[in-house]
Structures are given as structure tokens and as C-alpha cells.
Design brief:
The protein is mainly β. The chain has no helices and 21 strands. The strands form 3 sheets. Strands 1, 3, 5, 7, 8, 10, 11, 13, 14, 16, 18 and 20 form a 12-stranded mixed beta sheet that branches. It has a 6-stranded parallel beta sheet with strand order 9-12-15-17-19-21, with no helix packed on it.
Length: 392
């Protein structure tokens, strides 16, 4: 039940993945999964609407392509569909929506759909949304793209209606070169695809508001894999990357690798504890942003390693964040730190962060620390300004 955003997962099944076009959406939303125990079907996905209007498109009622709610307990919600409009003007105070369908009890919510609005004049004052549906895990945010004729840039928004409960992510495939300003807000979590790498070039601004997150955490190497994998033993070692992984009494931590100035490597996974069978944490992925205007981080911008899955396994190493921007501002958190371990495992090593900007005004938290528990891993070594902010 994914489309513009991933579908919510459950304890026993994965949610559907992201697909379709941001700027010219024509794809249908996928259906939610069936609960094989109760026999209830998942909700259907939303369809696709394409409107070409020479004059005014006025919406005081509803323009919808929402996913359908599940038919009963524990089935998944359907994903939102597509709405693509080209009009002389878009006005009104109604509702334009391509949101995911809800589920009941333990099912996963449907992912948000896709909306693209092009107009000579955009005066719509109603509700515009492509949110994930409610579930034990909410669906991921869909995409909303608006473009006014004559303006050099459009606006691409990922918002999830303010949801802060556990929710699925929105995968952003790349490389993506988009003439837009990008806003991540309202509980949306934007991530790479399964490749683990996000490469985004934007001539405008990229903003992560207080409840918005851009994250490659969890998208690095799996347990016991990668150039700096933690050792498998009784008490697994931490994964290495920008800093070595923490060692244990029985196994070594992973070693350092990757570039200080142009980091693109994934963080390595922590070592498995062979006694308990618990896997080490995954490493962080890699984010490369080229932003012509402002990169404002008031929410989260992360590529952290993942904590171990259980006692005595190693934490995953932090990944990579590489940014070139007109300015870097905000008061949120930029982080590529290692994942924690429990009891006797080794902590994941810190990752790598490189920030290049014409103006550096970021006042939030900036870190690439090794995780602490058992035997702590070292942080990555990065140049520091006199006020202890990274200037790499």
C-alpha cells in the first residue's frame, strides 16, 4: 500500500514502497495487504485524475483520490492515488486530497499519494494534503508539487498532517535534479531508497521544519558487513566508518575508511553476538545535497548507525552527509553518529559530515559521535571552528 510514500509496516509484513512521478503523477495507488487470519481485505488504492482547464478550477467541495480504509481488523489501508492539474487558475476553499486509507488495530496505514498543480494564478485557500493513513504504523507522506507560470521554481512539499507517532518513510530516489524549493514538514520522514544513497540537486531552498526529518539512518551496511564491519564473536564489535568501532574482550571493532572532505560511503554494520544470536545494528546511509539556496535544518538531518538488535551485539557505524549550499541555517540536528550497544558489545563508530556553504549560520546540534556503552567507539575526526562547530 505504498505510492507517494511507503505504506506502514506491521510485526509480520512490510509496507509497500514509493513509486510514481512527483511532477506528472498518473499512477494509481496500491492496495493494502489482506489479513490472512481474519480474512479481511486491505483497502483499495486511489485512482488517477488528470484535469486540463483553460480557465478557473474552483474547488469549494472536494477533489480527491484517497486510498480506501481496510475492510476489517488488521488489514492494511490503501495508498492515495494521483491528482495532476493544469489550469488558468486554482481557487476555492475546499479540499484537494490524495491521502492514504486507515486501518484498524494492527494493520499498516496506506501511504500518501501524489498531487501536482500547475496554474497561471494559484489562489487556493483550502486544505491540500497527501498524508499517510492511520495505522499501528502510519503510512508515509506523499508528495505535493505546485508551480505558478512564470515563476522559475516550483514548490515540493512532503507533509504528514503533523503525525509524530511511528510512521513509514517517503523514499526519494536519485539522482534527482528538480527545479523546486523542497519543504519537509508535519511529521514527514524523507529517506533514500534501498540503495542507501540519496543524491539531490535543488536550485532553490531545502527546509526541514521542526517536525520534518531527512534521514539515511538504517540505510547502510547490514550486520557484520561493510569495509569496517564489526567482528562476530561472543560480544560483537562495533561497526567502523569515520571512526573505529568499539572493541570487546573477544572481538575487534571495525576500522576507519572513507573521505573527510567528500563523504559518500555507507556506515558498516555492527558485529553479531554468536552466543545470543543477536545481530549488530545497520550502518547509516549516505546523503549528498547540492542546494542553490538555503539549507535550513530546524528538524532532523541524520545518517546515524542503528542500535544493536539485542544484548552484546555491536552498534552500526554512522553514515555520510555531504552538503554544498548557498547557506546552512537552522537550530535542529545534523548527525552521523554510531549506534548504541547493550551490555558488553562495542559501540558503532562515528560517521562523516562535510558542509560547504557561502554562509554558515547553523546554530543547532552537529555531531558524528561514536556510541557509548560497553567500550565506546571514537568519534570521527573533523576540523572545528573556535566555537566547536564543524567547518568541514
Amino acid at each position: 500500500m505504498g505510492h507517494g510514500g511507503n505504506g506502514g509496516w506491521t510485526q509480520t509484513s512490510g509496507g509497500g514502497l514509493t513509486y510514481g512521478s512527483v511532477t506528472e503523477p498518473v499512477t494509481l495507488g496500491s492496495g493494502g495487504g489482506r489479513d490472512v487470519n481474519s480474512g479481511y481485505d486491505g483497502g483499495k488504492g486511489g485512482g488517477a485524475i488528470r484535469l486540463i482547464v483553460g480557465g478557473e478550477l474552483r474547488v469549494d467541495g472536494g477533489l480527491r483520490s484517497d486510498g480506501v480504509d481496510c475492510s476489517g481488523l488488521d488489514a492494511g489501508g490503501g495508498a492515495g492515488g494521483s491528482i495532476w492539474v493544469t489550469a488558468g487558475s486554482v481557487t476555492g476553499a475546499g479540499a484537494i486530497s490524495a491521502s492514504g486509507g486507515k486501518t484498524l488495530r494492527n494493520g499498516g496505514g496506506g501511504g500518501g499519494g501524489r498531487v501536482a498543480l500547475y496554474a497561471d494564478a494559484y489562489l487556493f485557500s483550502g486544505t491540500l494534503k497527501a498524508c499517510g493513513g492511520q495505522g499501528s504504523v502510519y503510512g508515509g507522506a506523499g508528495s505535493i508539487y505546485t508551480k505558478v507560470t512564470g515563476q522559475p521554481l516550483g514548490d515540493l512539499t512532503y507533509g504528514n498532517c503533523g503525525v509524530t507517532a511511528t510512521r513509514a518513510s517517503t523514499e526519494l530516489a536519485g539522482p534527482l535534479d528538480l527545479a523546486a524549493n523542497v519543504l519537509v514538514t508535519g511529521g514527514a520522514v524523507v529517506t533514500p531508497t534501498v540503495s542507501g544513497t540519496m543524491h539531490l540537486e535543488v536550485p532553490g531552498a531545502v527546509r526541514s521544519e521542526t517536525t520534518g526529518v531527512i534521514s539515511a539512518s538504517w540505510y547502510g551496511y547490514a550486520s557484520s558487513t561493510g569495509p569496517g564491519e564489526g567482528g562476530d564473536q561472543i560480544d560483537g564489535g562495533g561497526g567502523g566508518h569515520g571512526g573505529n568501532g568499539g572493541w570487546t574482550q573477544t572481538s575487534g571493532g571495525g576500522l576507519t575508511y572513507g573521505s573527510v572532505t567528500e563523504p559518500v560511503t555507507l556506515g558498516s554494520g555492527g558485529g553479531r553476538d554468536v552466543n545470543s544470536g543477536y545481530d549488530g545494528g545497520k550502518g547509516g546511509g549516505a546523503i549528498h545535497l547540492i542546494v542553490g539556496g538555503e539549507l535550513r535544518v530546524d528538524g532532523g538531518f541524520r545518517s546515524d548507525g542503528v542500535d544493536c538488535s539485542g544484548l552484546d551485539a555491536g552498534g552500526g557505524a554512522g553514515g555520510s552527509i555531504w552538503v554544498t549550499a548557498g547557506s546552512v541555517t537552522g537550530a535542529g540536528a545534523i548527525s552521523a553518529s554510531g549506534g548504541k550497544t547493550l551490555r558488553n558489545g562495542g559501540g558503532g563508530g562515528g560517521g562523516r559530515v562535510a558542509l560547504y556553504a557561502d554562509a554558515y549560520l547553523f546554530s543547532g546540534t552537529l555531531k558524528a559521535c561514536g556510541a557509548r556503552f560497553g567500550l565506546a567507539a571514537p568519534a570521527a575526526s573533523t576540523p572545528r571552528s573556535p566555537d566547536n562547530r564543524s567547518v568541514t
